[in-house]
Amino acid sequence: VQLVESGGGLVHPGGSLRLSCAASGFRFTVSSYRMSWYRQAPGRERELVAAIRSTGETNYAESVKGRFTISRDNAKNIVYLQMNSLKFDDTAVYYCKATLWTDDYWGQGTQVTVSS
Fold first, then answer.
1. What is the mean pLDDT of residues 93-106?
2. How far is CA 76 from CA 8, 15, 31, 44, 106, in A?
């Protein structure tokens, strides 16, 4: 069972990145799980950024609404986080999480740095 994030990097303010979370070894596809993106900045607690339920319903942190979009490709078993209009405060390590009932699975994280 593995979640592997990719797509992080260095970007200027106002720029965009698309993060990917590839799932493997799971019994079900990502469509069966509540898939979430979290982030953790230095000295701060990990926080929920966006989530997509098995129903397709999505929710976002207030700080990213209108700028970030979570989506999934069930055939590829990948969850995406499209991040637009990036700000300095978006700098963090971004983690993918899969939840099924009471079981949580985390990826190793990918660094996103917004800097001029």
1. 94
2. 19, 26, 11, 33, 18
